[in-house]
Amino acid sequence: MPTMTCAGREITVNDEGFFTDPSQWTEDMAPQIASAEGIAELTDRHWQVIKFMRHEYEAKGTGPTVRALGKTSGVSVKELYQLFPKGPAKVAAKIAGIPKPRGCI
Amino acid sequence: MRKRIIVLGGGTGGTLIANRLRRLLDRDAAGIVVIDSDDGHIYQPGLLFVPFGLARPARLVRPRHRQLRRGITFRRAAVDRVDTEHDQVALADGTVLGYDVLVIATGARLIPEETEGLTGPGWLEKVFTFYTLDGAAALRQALSRFGGGRIAVAVMDMPIKCPVAPLEFCFLADWYFRQRGVREKVQLTFVTPLDGAFTKPTCNRELSGLLEDKGVGLVTEFNTGEVDGQGGRLVSYDGREVPFDLAVVVPLHGGQAYVERSPGLGDALGFVPTDQRTLQSKAAPNVFVIGDASDIPTSKAGSVAHFEGDILARNITRYLAGEPLDAAFDGHTNCFIESGFGRALLIDFNYDTEPVTGRFPGRLGLPLLRQSRLNHLGKLAFSWLYWHVLLPGRDIPAVRSQMPTAGKRPPDGPGPGDSPARSRKAPRCPP
Prior knowledge:
The structure holds two protein chains of two kinds. By secondary structure, chain A is mainly alpha-helical.
């Protein structure tokens, strides 16, 4: 299992860079993961989404899809893409330290 | 005391569960009511064939009430909401019905208006869907007039009913334009929000290869934000564009509006959170879900409802008897994939096993994940099975609710009973 160093701590991640153990995540790790994803600065709007992702994961065991995020996070799908241009559900999940959203089959 | 079972929805799942329950339960023990807002049961697998003139719309529809066994009441009404706290269903006409057991079988709803521009200028002129009877019929006219240009076949977002249907549409469109001798003038592109043609790796390789063989372009990870019918463009949320002269769109899907109106019943998209093994809803112990209406991680497909039916009928009788439920549903799904030129593939999988090669239901059965004439004939024969075996709630001979493993070849090696020589010859996906 690959590891990375984040905020001075060793974290285990999967091949795509998602946390395998969300309990290792702390808020001070988010800016570093974000900048690796091309997001230079995390605004309040980013944080709203990141915190929502954590909350949803803790409640349901999986992160929401983009569409569900758009309906429930208080941030529209359009704005989600402005905040996380490379794909809101995936990138926000990565920054929030939760596994890749299971999505649909 | 006589129990009251209400089934919401008279489609595939609702019809077959009502019929199965009617056979299992004495009429003195339980009354069964099926509620639907109309009396037209559409054979949905047939919709795919309508645009190519291979099926006639009127032949796909039969009365819902005629598919129900004697001793089941059919009530034509729209549902306003469900009150799981008081075990009541409120109908749109103001009637309130109490229940002992509720089965939610109202499927998925198409929501084309949720995508910007989709139902605006160009809708049903340049932009179509074959997911409705009217849409499929209108598309048939448009295709017959289409002499050349760019056709984009686009999935707006998952989940959708029958995730292989848009791929089948591409394969059949390739066949259709070749028959007409204009294939070289038609540019076909499949546009998907997924990162490949299909979600499961082995099957994805096979189907991507098939798209390539047939000269169908593939655009992945395309989340359509806007359909510009007038300008002939699909625009993704991240600013990419796919131009088209004709677009065939699978609209966004959600649960029914009454689910959203019922407190605590549905999720953000209106699907009903459900235990994926017992099929009991998470909202209340006496509410069960069958088919596309649930949020379980299976394909939204009639075969899933069929395999669920056997397990759910037994679980409802267990519930009524005060016995523990059987966590028996394994996510079994089975789909024919029409590939054009009178051939089809077959895939068979569950929660834990992805679609692989081999044969179904056993070693001497239909070839899996490989084009064959036999599978095409299977798909055609399925229409008869649907009306006469599936809906009456009977088991298909030799096909069990649990996914069979005999005859399946693991993705990275020969299957049981395969001689090395044979597995070398058999078509396999690259590792």
